[in-house]
Hints:
Layout: E1 3-7, E2 12-17, H1 20-32, E3 38-41, E4 50-55, H2 69-86
Antiparallel strand pairs: 1-2, 2-4, 3-4
Amino acid sequence: MDTSFEYIDRKTAYISSTEYSWYKKMLKLKEEHPDEVEIIKTPEENAGYLYASFPVGWIKIKPKRILSEEEKQKVIDRFRKKPNEMNNPENDLIPEEDY
């Protein structure tokens, strides 16, 4: 698998990829933002490579969040608590008589 991103100016970025997941993602973005995404070449017409352009502001690199053991436990406790809160009639947004 091969994927690369490039941009020459501050407006337009390009992706070249053989990964099907990027192809699906770019097709979806094209549907949602037809004026901002251009599928320049599909993998079928470009030796298996997608080539597309999109706004450079969409590029983001986000490192994986590493939780301490204490943070992990807080997350676990919060998820365990949620179902109990959701089943508590005092937390209902709609009064029972309105069902």
